[in-house]
From TrEMBL:
Keywords: ATP-binding, Kinase, Membrane, Nucleotide-binding, Phosphoprotein, Transcription, Transcription regulation, Transferase, Transmembrane, Transmembrane helix, Two-component regulatory system. It comes from Larkinella terrae. One of its GO terms (molecular function) is sequence-specific DNA binding. Gene3D superfamilies: 1.10.287.130, 3.40.50.2300, Histidine kinase-like ATPase, C-terminal domain, Homeodomain-like, Immunoglobulins, YVTN repeat-like/Quinoprotein amine dehydrogenase. Residues 1058-1173 form the Response regulatory domain. The keyword Electron transport does not apply. The chain crosses the membrane at residues 759-781. It catalyses: ATP + protein L-histidine = ADP + protein N-phospho-L-histidine. This is histidine kinase.
Length: 1309
């Protein structure tokens, strides 16, 4: 493409120059750091201090770190810290011990016992060497310690005998050390000792006890370039590295030849660290971190600013580079992750791909490429290997890799309605011809005529015009096209016929999803396609059968969003996802996952951000940049990590070095002898591999208990309650490729038997059993002798027991049998009283009802006695006002007392207001005592009932009458069952009329004793009787009364139910509120008027209301609630002390949903509230379902529910069904309700908003018209939608299908 003006050409040249300069600077910056992203280890990960002086790895594989705060051991998960002193250097000896140095002291640390030995504080050392500063040291393979001092030369100490030799420079002696200042000491693989002194390099000759000096600079052709040595290092292959002021010299171990390489810049200080990896690279720390290779030379990896004053370096056995810093902790680099190359974005995916990956000059970039949408990038290759690509701007380009030239290829004529933002799809058929597709059209490129030949038919049906074609492949028979939401299409190249493949729920052989992201042909199987989906994994599609095999996270994929599935030449598929890159074996379907820990720039990739080069290299674009790699160079991890024990717990207590471990640390323990009660064992272990720790798996097995290995992600083995015996615990780990290591750590466990299972204990048990057997035989013989005498007594007792049981069963059965005829007497009598109003009829019917109630009471007493006798009656406490409770019972006898001319009085004396008591049993006690007193008190008499409290806190109820009294002879027997006083001497003048059944007082006594109380009686014949009942009722603690009217006691969420409590007694209201604080939001009101206002304001889910209240009582509140259509749906539970039948009927008649009598049980009230809320929820679900279910047509809305609000709502909606302007505001006007009130009412009844109710009603009515044969558009206008497209969208959201699909299925949703 040419630019039209000279100014544009100048602008383009300037832009090209700037981009070229920017790309060159980026390459230089990228080359300055050849390390992968580091893992940073600081105090947050458990490091004791940020200044790191030295890092080594011991024989077992642990990493040891020296800091200014002591020594730390790292197992890959946590640090174990030892703090003797400041550490400047760590080295290991041949025995596996650690030697640590600071400026003046040298310590030896034994990892087996985890103890320090202060070597320089020993008497012999202080005697001969005092406190001379140590510059360097070495423990050689002959267990000798070499010390280099700043001015006192060199010392060699035999650690077995403490004998030593000192070497100093002797002027005139050419075989003495070259200088008394020694800066470094090493030992090569031949056992030779090499020294770096201020004057050069020395080698110690053991045979001649002399030093051989290397040639100084310029002495011979094989001399060192200069004599200022900065450091010595012995490579793994035995070669000696010598760093001088300006050169690095390699002395070959076999020939002794020297090879010098000039340093990047002169080194003025001592080299701080050397190390080597398994690829033959050496790492040197000078003024920065350098990588040196014999072939490539030096490469600066990081300067002092890049790795904050690098202090040391170490490469462990798993090729992890550990870099010690001055105050910034440790930088850990995985040297095996360099197989992935990352390139962060600079200009965008398309431009960076061409310039940085394909190395295309910036001047050859197509105009506007940096601004193009990278999601439209598509490419293919022709037979000559040229790259054809497009970025969706109606242009196609061809790149020649040899000439690095990119030229535009003219596009074919596009349809008039073509959109410029659509991607240009490219592919190559098996014959090598280039194909181009745009939306529904396709062309094939004629190379001979340099023109595009159009396909005579569309690649997808015309009715699918709204969806874009995303990617396609062409084989010898057909074109295969994927879409973003409508599945896969196959179009026959000969006939043009299309076949559609989509996801079918329930069919596991269909596509797993209709949202497709990529399609690739399998180069090794012409009948196989690999199709990625957005959220449902990968599909292995068979062209012959049209069936798919689903591959998801269950099959090993890292994520179910698949952006790319590129097949390579080696039989693998490379799958880019949201959570990493997956390599899939196309035959075995085995997977291997790569993440940022393996070197990926980021774990999340993008759609259509990929390129596969002709040489099989792959470039993938993600959120942060491009990751490029060669699949053929990726290798499996072959490292075999050893496994070490890091901690042992016995009975949840850490195992420390001691007698049990033979004074060794747990990492060195191989066997444990444990007591029988030391059988709860926890073993923590670690794999000694420090790269990609998250990919390492662990397993363990306890032979003698576990039949097989137990695989775990957490390296911890836990065994509880192990039986005595011998066990072997085997611990193992995999490497980062999932290959189990051949190194298995074992721990032998012996759990000894307890003393009571030893042989002498078993012998004692045997003798004891013999003695017991003898005693049993003797006892058996005695028992036979006594059996005859005991059988007679047993038979007598059995007969008495059977008679007692028969009596109890008789009373229980007869009382139950009485209930049915009593009910048949009472119920018709009550109905007749309501029908016959004549006084004479009323008197007779009242007599029948009263007698039936007395008979029912007698039956209930018999039933209580039978329950008491069977032990089935239990005391059940509830909280209540004892004065009001007993006062109400006394008040219920007032009419009867007045009718008999008896003065019945109640005196509540000093007692608390509320107690915990059994209301049912107390009511029976008080009822029987008052009824008994009334029965035997003549006209004009008095009955006093008193309620008080003793000093000990017991409740005392006394009833004293002025009746006929009881003689002293009968007093001891009045509480016996069925005892009656019938003779005239008792004081009963009319025994036939006054006598009872003899069970009332007996029941009272047993009920009092059941509650832990006692009853006493005093009586004088002719004067009266006094009954005293003492009950140990607990005083109820007064509840705090909150000052605000509305108290929020639970966090308000959409799931919390709102309760309104209307109660004038603040203490009782607080108690009820605290009962529901766990899962309810509470509102409070002190009378009915306040409750009604709060109900309108807060719209609670349920109301609990008292009946007797000031201003407005509970009955009036219920009537007002039910009259108001806005709040008529709220259920109401009335709570009152009125337990009479008439009171309950009045409450329920006003519209109350439930009725609870005081005092009540807390659990009963909670269950009643829960049941009412559950009924409301089920009603709401039913109404909501009726609005959604298409199989329940709204032909007669008025009959669908009895809810008054809906009876008004549905006709209004039906009347305005075809009015598209009818909405919430119009509905509020016709309902004469505010917008907020109608919204709350809708939410309470249906769980839907007002808009959703109107829309769902229209859609439900639409089902009726669709079934009547109307088209989708006609139906849309008929039910008030002014846009058929919006109607289709709403219909699909509600019924999961379009109106057309609904009709096609016969009107079945």
């Amino acid at each position: 493409m040419r630019w039209s003006s000279h100014m544009n050409r100048n602008y383009y040249l300037l832009l090209s120059f700037l981009l070229t300069l920017y790309g060159w600077l980026g390459k230089v910056a990228a080359q300055s750091n050849g390390l992968p992203q580091p893992e940073i280890i600081t105090q947050r990960q458990g490091l004791s201090q940020g200044f790191i002086s030295s890092i080594v790895q011991d024989r077992q594989g642990f990493i040891w770190v020296g800091t200014l705060d002591g020594l730390s051991r790292y197992d890959g998960a946590e640090f174990k810290i030892f703090q003797p002193a400041i550490i400047l250097e760590i080295k290991t000896d041949a025995q596996g011990r650690l030697w640590t140095r600071n400026e003046r002291d040298l310590d030896r640390f034994d990892p087996t016992t985890e103890t320090f030995f202060r070597f320089t504080q020993q008497p012999f050392y202080l005697k001969h060497f005092k406190r001379e500063p140590i510059q360097c040291f070495l423990v050689d393979n002959r267990n000798r310690l070499w010390l280099g001092f700043g001015t006192e030369g060199l010392v060699c100490i035999d650690l077995r005998t403490n004998r030593f030799r000192r070497f100093r420079h002797q002027p005139g002696n050419s075989h003495s050390i070259s200088h008394s200042s020694v800066s470094d000491i090493v030992q090569d693989r031949q056992g030779r000792i090499w020294l770096a002194t201020r004057r050069g390099l020395d080698r110690f000759d053991e045979s001649g006890n002399r030093f051989i000096h290397s040639n100084s600079a310029g002495a011979t052709p094989n001399a060192l370039p200069d004599s200022a040595i900065r450091g010595l290092y012995v490579r793994p292959d035995g070669d000696l590295l010598i760093v001088t002021q300006s050169h690095l010299t390699i002395q070959q171990s076999r020939t002794g030849d020297l090879k010098s390489v000039k340093l990047p810049k002169p080194s003025a200080e001592k080299v701080l660290g050397f190390s080597s990896d398994h690829q033959g690279n050496d790492y040197v720390v000078m003024d920065g971190l350098y990588r040196f290779n014999d072939k490539t030379g030096f490469r600066l990896l990081a300067d002092s600013s890049g790795i904050r004053a690098c202090r040391g370096v170490y490469v462990d056995r798993s090729d992890v580079l550990w870099v010690a810093t001055n105050g910034a902790g440790i930088r850990k680099y995985n040297l095996r992750s360099g197989l992935f190359q990352g390139a962060p974005y600079r200009m965008g995916f398309s431009a960076d791909l061409l310039t940085r990956i394909l190395e295309l000059p910036v001047s050859e970039l197509p105009p506007g490429l940096a601004r193009a949408d990278a999601y439209n990038f598509r490419y293919t290759y022709d037979r000559q290997g040229n790259l054809w690509f497009s970025v969706g701007n109606s242009s196609v380009y061809r790149l020649d890799f040899q000439t690095k030239k990119c030229r535009a290829v003219p596009m074919p004529p596009l349809p008039p309605d073509d959109q410029a933002d659509r991607p240009v799809l490219l592919t190559t058929d098996p014959a090598g011809k280039i194909w181009l597709a745009r939306h529904l059209s396709a062309w094939r490129y004629d190379e001979a005529g340099s023109r595009w030949e159009p396909l005579p038919f569309t690649i997808r049906p015309n009715d699918d015009r709204q969806r874009q074609s995303l990617q396609f492949v062409v084989d010898q028979q057909a074109i295969w096209v994927i879409t973003g939401s409508n599945g896969l299409f196959r179009t026959d190249l000969k006939t043009g016929q299309s076949r559609h493949y989509t996801h079918h729920p329930g069919d596991s052989t269909s596509l797993s999803r209709n949202n497709l992201t990529c399609i690739f042909a399998d180069p090794l199987d012409a009948n196989r396609l690999w199709i990625g989906t957005y959220g449902s994994g990968l599909n292995r599609f068979d062209k012959r059968t049209g069936q798919s095999q689903w591959l998801t996270m269950k099959n090993g994929l890292p994520n179910n969003v698949v952006y790319t599935a590129i097949p390579d030449r080696r039989g693998f598929l490379w799958i880019a996802t949201n959570q990493g890159l997956c390599r899939l074996n196309r035959q075995t379907l085995q997977t291997r996952i790569y993440t940022h820990e393996d070197g990926l720039l980021a774990d999340e990739f993008n759609r259509f951000h990929f390129l596969q080069l002709p040489d099989d290299r792959i470039a993938l674009g993600g959120l942060e940049g491009i990751t490029a790699f060669d699949p053929g160079k990726l290798r499996e991890d072959t490292y075999q990590p050893p496994v070490q024990i890091t901690a042992i717990q016995i009975n949840n207590r850490p195992l420390l070095p001691g007698e049990l471990t033979q004074n060794r640390t747990v990492s060195r323990v191989d066997q444990l002898d444990l007591k029988h009660d030391q059988n709860f064992i926890t073993v923590n272990f670690a794999a000694m591999q420090y790269n990609r720790r998250s990919k390492i798996r662990f397993r363990y097995q306890l032979t003698g208990l576990d039949p097989d290995w137990i695989v775990t992600e957490r390296p911890t083995a836990v065994y509880t309650d192990l039986r005595p015996g011998d066990y072997t615990l085997k611990l193992n780990a995999s490497n980062t490729s999932g290959i189990w290591s051949q190194h298995v750590r074992t721990l032998t466990l012996t759990i000894h038997r307890p003393w009571w299972t030893s042989w002498w204990a078993l012998t004692a048990y045997g003798l004891l059993l013999i003695g017991i057997g003898y005693g049993v035989v003797r006892a058996y013989l005695n028992r036979i002798q006594m059996r005859q005498s005991m059988e007679l007594r047993q038979k007598e007792a059995e007969q008495l027991r059977m008679v007692d049981e028969m009596k109890s069963r008789f009373f229980a059965n007869i009382t139950h049998e009485f209930r049915t005829p009593i009910t048949l007497i009472m119920t018709p009598a009550e109905q007749l009283m309501a029908r016959f109003r004549e006084p004479q009829d009323q008197q007779r019917l009242t007599t029948i009802t009263r007698s039936a109630n007395q008979l029912l009471d007698l039956v209930n007493q018999f039933l209580d006695l039978s329950k008491l006798e069977a032990g089935a009656l239990k005391a059940e406490e509830s909280r209540g006002n004892l004065r009001e409770f007993i006062g109400a019972i006394v008040q219920s006898f007032q009419f009867q007392a007045e009718a008999r001319g008896v003065d019945l009085r109640f005196f509540p004396e000093n007692s608390a207001e509320e107690y915990w008591f059994d209301a049912g049993k107390l009511e029976r006690i008080v009822f029987n005592l008052i009824a008994n007193a009334l029965k035997f008190t003549k006209t004009g008499g008095e009955i006093d009932c008193r309620l008080g409290q003793t000093h000990s806190g017991k409740v005392v109820f006394t009833i004293r009458d002025s009746g006929i009294g009881i003689s002293a002879d009968h007093l001891p027997h009045i509480f016996d069952r069925f005892y009656q006083v019938e003779d005239s001497s008792s004081g009963l003048s009319e025994p036939k009329q006054q006598g009872g059944t003899g069970i009332g007082l007996a029941l009272v006594k047993e009920l009092v004793e059941l509650q832990g109380g006692e009853i006493r009686v005093q009586s004088t014949l002719g004067t009266g009787t006094e009954f005293t009942v003492e009950l140990p009722y607990r005083t109820a603690v007064p509840l705090a009364v909150p000052t605000p009217e509305v108290s929020v006691v639970a966090e308000e969420t959409d799931e919390v139910n709102h309760l309104l409590i209307v109660e004038d007694n603040q203490e009782l209201a607080t108690y009820i509120a605290e009962t529901f604080t766990d899962s309810y939001r509470i509102f409070r009101a002190s009378n009915g008027a306040e409750g009604l206002a709060l109900a309108l304001e807060k719209m609670p889910d349920l109301i609990i209301s008292d009946v007797l209240m000031p201003v407005m009582n509970g009955y009036s509140l219920v009537r007002e609630l039910k009259k108001d259509v806005r709040i008529s749906h709220i259920p109401v539970i009335l709570l009152t002390a009125k337990s009479a039948f008439e009171s309950r009927m009045e409450g329920l008649a006003t519209g109350a949903n439930d009725y609870v009598t005081k005092p009540f049980h807390v659990e009963e009230l909670r269950l009643r509230v829960r049941n009412q809320l559950e009924l409301q929820r089920k009603l709401r679900e039913w109404i909501r379902a009726s609005l959604i279910n298409p199989d329940s047509p709204v032909t007669d809305p008025e009959n669908e529910t009895s809810e008054p609000f809906l009876e008004i709502l549905y006709p209004i909606l039906e009347k305005n069904l075809d009015n598209s302007m009818f909405g919430v505001e119009e509905l509020c006007q016709q309902m004469r309700m505010s917008r907020m009130s109608i919204y709350r009412k809708m939410k309470a009844l249906t769980g839907l908003s007002t808009n959703e109710v109107i829309r769902n009603y229209r859609l439900k009515r639409a089902v009726y018209y669709l079934r009547q044969g109307l088209t989708s558009s006609e139906t849309a206008y008929q039910v008030g939608f002014d846009s058929p497209a919006y109607f289709t969208k709403c219909f699909r959201e509600l019924y999961q299908m379009t109106p057309t699909e609904f009709v096609a299925k016969g009107g079945i949703a």
